[in-house]
């Protein structure tokens, strides 16, 4: 591996709102689980703890994925795209990623067809 292949930490380009999108993908099977936003503090917490932290735009606060449900994401690797303005979290997902009870937030097609697996009852969790 050459020196050019080993860079210092990449400078993430947080947007004007101070956030960057992050895709959570299952590290084992590659399934896309969710998309959320990350603030500098959320990224720092994720790197410190090894568990995914995001920024809730609706609640305007930092959140630990699984903090209330117990359905955490252990982050195995963080990748950054070529423009350094999108993150990819390769995760080990505990139970489901979606608050609707599905393994993935991408559980339906644009035509409304249900294609995802429901893995828990949100009424029992939240």
TrEMBL record:
Its main location: cytoplasm. The lineage of its organism: Archaea, Methanobacteriati, Methanobacteriota, Stenosarchaea group, Halobacteria. Belongs to the PRA-CH family. Binds 1 Mg(2+) ion per subunit. Binds 1 zinc ion per subunit. It is an enzyme of class 3 (hydrolase). GO terms for cellular component: cytoplasm. Keywords: Amino-acid biosynthesis, Cytoplasm, Histidine biosynthesis, Hydrolase, Magnesium, Metal-binding, Zinc. One of its GO terms (molecular function) is phosphoribosyl-AMP cyclohydrolase activity. This is Phosphoribosyl-AMP cyclohydrolase. Pathway: Amino-acid biosynthesis; L-histidine biosynthesis; L-histidine from 5-phospho-alpha-D-ribose 1-diphosphate: step 3/9. The keyword Transmembrane does not apply. Zn(2+) binds at residues 82, 98, 105. GO terms for biological process: L-histidine biosynthetic process. Its EC number is 3.5.4.19. NCBIfam families: PRK00051.1. It is found in: Cytoplasm. Residues 34-107 form the Phosphoribosyl-AMP cyclohydrolase domain. SUPFAM superfamilies: HisI-like. InterPro entries: PRA-CH, PRib_AMP_CycHydrolase_dom, PRib_AMP_CycHydrolase_sf. Its cofactor is Mg(2+); Zn(2+). Catalyzes the hydrolysis of the adenine ring of phosphoribosyl-AMP. It catalyses: 1-(5-phospho-beta-D-ribosyl)-5'-AMP + H2O = 1-(5-phospho-beta-D-ribosyl)-5-[(5-phospho-beta-D-ribosylamino)methylideneamino]imidazole-4-carboxamide. It comes from the Archaea. Homodimer. PANTHER family: HISTIDINE BIOSYNTHESIS BIFUNCTIONAL PROTEIN, HISTIDINE BIOSYNTHESIS BIFUNCTIONAL PROTEIN HIS7.
């Amino acid at each position: 591996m050459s020196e050019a292949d080993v860079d210092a930490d990449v400078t993430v380009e947080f947007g004007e709102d101070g956030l960057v999108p992050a895709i959570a993908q299952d590290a084992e099977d590659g399934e896309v689980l969710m998309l959320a936003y990350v603030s500098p503090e959320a990224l720092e917490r994720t790197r410190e703890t090894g568990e995914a932290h995001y920024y809730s735009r609706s609640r305007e606060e930092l959140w630990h994925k699984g903090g209330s449900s117990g359905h955490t994401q252990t982050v195995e690797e963080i990748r950054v795209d070529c423009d350094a303005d999108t993150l990819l979290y390769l995760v080990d997902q505990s139970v489901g990623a979606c608050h609707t009870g599905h393994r993935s937030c991408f559980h339906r097609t644009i035509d409304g067809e249900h294609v995802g697996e429901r893995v828990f009852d949100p009424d029992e969790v939240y």
